[in-house]
Amino acid sequence: MLKEYPATKGWISFCCKDNMSIAHGEHFSKVVMNCLQANPVQILAVGINCCSPKLVSDLITSLEVDIPIVTYPNSGEKFIPGHGWADDQCQPLHSFKVFGVSVNKKKNDDKIKRLLIDNDALRTENLSLSFEISKLKKDNGKLKDENFSDYLSLMRERDARYTLYFENLSLHLKLKELDNGMSQPMAIRSDPTILRIALDRCRKQLSSTQSELKSMKEEYAETVPRRDFEHLEGEHQELQTQVQHQLAQYEHLQSTYRKVTAHKNSIEEELMECRERCRELERAGTPRPPWDLCADFIGGGKKRWCQLTEGLSSRDKLRALLKELGPAAESEHLEYFDGLGTDPAVPPYLRYSGRVRNLRLSRREVRVVVNDVWRGRPHHPHLALQDFVTKYFEDRYQQSSVRAEWAYNVCAGAESMLDEPQVRVWWGALHGQLSEQVYWGLRRQWDQLQQHLRRQALDGETITIEEFERVSRSIFPLKSEVDIKNLTDVVKKQLKIKLNCNEINLDKLFYENEEGFDRVELARELFRQRQLGQDKYIREVVAELGGRRAQRNVTVDALKRAFAIVDPAIDHVRMEQYIRWAFSDQSSEISAISPLSLQNIVVRLAAGDIERVGPRSKGVRRNYNKH
Length: 627
Prior knowledge:
By secondary structure, the protein is mostly helical. The chain is 60% helix and 7% strand.
């Protein structure tokens, strides 16, 4: 069974009936040998269990192999069938040498603990003795050094005594030579003892002098002469002074550089603010018109026009021009609007009786109000846009006359600013001509692009132009390379990026003022491409329906089929949204919606948030431009 589990190891234990055989009758040692020969790798030990303790020793002795033994015999009793457990008349279990380990375990543990404590004490004592030996060795070294210095001093004293002795002897010889002639000094000179001593002394002095000369040569081989050293030391001090002076100048220049850099940054910030203010003034300001051209439309020509406008301001010139062009330009009509009354057919935000003062709002003021309306719109999604605009003016202006002034002036300004996409979308949604989702779809694209670009930027602020193009392709997989290139060119133009610069500042790119995000050039380019893509998408759908010249009504099933062919990736939820918008029916069962003319379907699709989900299959593409 063990061989079926190669990774498992274990031991085999036998229940034995006597000191030679197992309970089944086989010889114990032979059975063990057969088991080990059959599986020597997985069998770790052999065991003896459930037998009298007095049999265990003989069974272990009978084994002919060296293998670990596991034994767990009875406690010294035997089982008699029908009677139960009875005394086996053998010695207690703990009296056997084989099983004495567990009995004496506690004593051995105590002894081991004592030995460990003694070992720790001896180790501590050994460590202290080692420190003491080290200290004694250090003291012994000091004593050796002191004794050696004493020895050297004694040797020098001995040499000095020799020197004095010979010098004294030499003086005596000279003195005697002067006093007594040449007889006695010659005798002294011929004394071999004196000469031998003098010769030994000379040899020793020569040897010591040579040794000192050699050691001095070795010691001073790389030594610089004092004169050169003093000269180099002076040059070093001079260079040190120059270095200190240069460091002081460097610190001064660093401080000046930091101040200049801070001043430069502040000037750049002021320049950016000035440029922004200039752009605001350019957008909000009104260019001075060429008034001389108005003379061509006035009776009497240039001469009469000069008489009418001499000394007048631009506003007065405009009034004079409008007065000459027709009766509708009277000052009465320029200063006030006529209220539309309170009829239910009048939009709720324009219900007012009486005259309304013309505030002459600038284009910027109209854009600010429109953006403020869009910003508050998500908080009241259940209200229709006209009702929300009414609530918007009611919350801000308590007096009905002031509320009517702002409502009428904003609407008049918006109607005159339909050339701007931002105002055109708001005005169309307000009058039910466009879906609000046109604005929110553009807003989702803007936020999605900004989030992905900021995640791509390592510092959260700047990315390269190549990274911008790569992120744009991943977010807008249906855009062509031309569209991506146009987005990149718009970004470069908006941020005024130079040719040698490759970085895009995301804070500047996605900066939104109070006029809204769709005033940014990048947002306008996204809106333009979105509109072009929608127009192309609708043309393909119309082509599948038979073309604009087809004089027939379009059913829900036909429109479904056209969408499925043109946009195979469209899901059922979005298709149902598009169909309900095209048929202007949000509540009926989709199968019960009545057919509409193709012209009405096209107008409704063009006014909605209709966007392609995926590419069209190449096998079913048609040349829809022919229709």
